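Single-chain item
Fold in token form
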Amino acid sequence: MWVFVLPESTPWPVANAPGSAMIEVASNASPLAAQLRERITREGPITFRDWMATALYDPTYGYYCRADHRKWGREGDYRTSPERSPLFAATFARYFAKLYEQLGAPTAWIIVEAGAGEGRFAERVMQTFADYFPGVFAATTFVLDEVGPHSSAEARQRLERFGDQVHFSQLADLQIDQGVVFSNELLDALPVHRVKLDAGHYKEFYVNIDENGEFQWRLGELSVALQAKLCEYLQTIAVEPQEGQVFEVNLEIDEWLRRVAGSLRRGYVVTVDYGSAAETLFSSDEGTLRGFRRHQFVDDLIKDPGEHDLTTTVNWDFVKACGARLGLDAAEFERQDRFLLANGFPEQLTSELAQAETDAERLRLSTAAREMILPGGMAVHFQVLVQKRRL
């Protein structure tokens, strides 16, 4: 097993936010912070990739696994499209019904939602099937893959009325003969390596502790895991970083797509996220890593691990290239607002407005619709990628 060791004779260049010479420190008293300090004391500085994985996905104290922290909604740290409006999931239900027909209307098929949260999307999709597409509803088994135990418990309660048509399982444990694998804002939350081209050499960002036990950024040699993959990654996206440039490398995307391809025999992968082409991502020298708490940006990204979200912009060129290698061919790629408009959003809105019983309900629907499709709204910053499983 390779263990990172800091030679006593090797001074570490110190980095704060990418490109800065300041040291970013934070006072951390949480159990997760203590756990990370102990690990760093034992093993030496850890890659930011490992730091991010622990901060977000530690089974007890990780941001997505905690039961004592509200993440979604006005009282949480951010609002996703399913939480903003049921029209989002209802429109995707219409789209899934179209995919169902393209698959030949099988007697049984599976929809898997990866990173399903509290089940709001799944609930609305199943209810839309029941209301508008009874044949699709009868054929559907909906599987939720969610790492957070608290979110899973909420989802189980929310979806209880659908009985054995709803299951909870990890994607890697499934064999999907025909179906759809869907995710919304999943890829942007996968742990990333952070890299800088420094004096002609690629260096990786680590997290260390100083003599006072405070967390700080450190810049060091590439970890073994990244050494084996960085050149391939840059060749795949056809980009040459510039001197001094900081960028993220999300190798977890390839691993996730491998699990998808290994589970899905026939069907589609529908991915919703905010991202850009590689050329656009590399037009900035600072990378795209950011944190959110209470709908505000977090200035100190390594302060209070487990207390805030961490996210990066998805490199769509890498997603498409990885998929193509695995037999997942890009079939559609569109900005989210345009995708919704082309796949039944206006019809769904009209139907729900007609069924609304109060002016307040109609106002909520109209307000949510404007956020979803009007210029400058939330949806213009997101994209939808549809990949078809190659037989």
